[in-house]
Amino acid sequence: MPNLNNVPTLPSYLLERLSACYSQEQTDRICAGYAAQRAVSFRVNTLKATAPAVLEQLQTAGIATTPVAWSETAFFCTDSTTEAQLQALSCYENGEIYLQSLSSMLPPIVLQPQPKQEILDMTADPGGKTTQMAAMTQNQANIMACELHAIRAEKLKYNVEKQGAKRVTVSVTDARRLSPYFSFDRILLDAPCSGSGTLSLHTGAGLQNFSPALVQKTVKAQRALLKKAISLLKKNQEMVYSTCSILPEENEEQVAAILKTEQVELLPIAFSGMETLPLLPSQFAETLCVCPDAQYEGFFVAKLRFSWYIGAKQIKGTILVNKKEKAKAIIDILKQRYDDAACALHYAKDYELMIAVRLSAQCTDARVNLVTPALFAAYPTLEAMAAADIADVENYVRSCGFYKHKARDIVLACRMLLTD
User: Fold this and answer.
1) What is the tens place of the pLDDT at every residue in 107-122?
2) 3-state secondary structure 128-170
3) Annotated active-site positions, please?
């Protein structure tokens, strides 16, 4: 009779969260995935080999494989093949294949890095996604791969060299501390997480360390890394945020929070074969949440674009070229970020604020507030100010300094607002 004390069980906290976030049927699917013996999977490294050549070697070794619908270089073993068996083959020793979970191959597929781009992998260890992007771009993109811990960084360097990734710079640093002078065309943030998608009842992996404290710690780190990533993106360029978690607080809630505070938009994810993935429901139709099963680990992927003129209403897919559209989007952003902002200048109408701001140049707000009551009484509407004689306006604003320039600017600005 088996010793039941040695049988791994799921943490009660995790079961509570799953029940709160998913239906009973979905929770049962997730738990079945935790209990499954996950198939060994690998990626053919096209920098060193072709898929047919690798598959021929595997077939000779008696290893059966199955391709996935969404990649020509990703495969999983369909028998009881172990990682050790693959590691004993010359194709592994030569860096022609890389042992990698199928789910972790998805973020680079979604990001779609291109040759000649500047790419950042913010948390790169052990290097699977870094070398995958190098292969996807055929060593024609510059990749910075960050790893905070020196020992892990050495492992990352080893894998980069073994895979033949030639234009990868490994930086032993916390990506949150990267200089703001860096800027990138593509950023991959596979954020540190609780690992709630990778837990295994078969091996016990991840179960012992899973706790509310771990989730809280990773949520804080994710938020900081995500904000940093956006600050390093070039305008109108894209990033992928991913985790090996299936908990909303690490996934959809992080995305929702960043959409409220940063100039980013959530992009739809679409690639051939995506319909074959075992997906869980997500708050956003644009994101992917993969359910753990016998082939896949639980995983979350979101694609974001930094768009300077995207405001609170998320003007998706629109390039704003009209000045009025840009102004409105900027106002939306300012209202969103500074909804309780106060102004020392006194005004009752929007155009009055414009006038007061112009008068405040090299002048105190207190002095402007002494001048504007009489000015606004004399010219109570935008139309009245636009029709004013500039010389008359000069007399009202003389004490604010540079009165000739300011009077002219105010009147001409009002006329422009009426004509535009």
Assistant:
1) 999 999 999 999 999 9
2) HHHHHHHHHCCCCCEEEEECCCHHHHHHHHHHHHHCCCCCEEE
3) 244
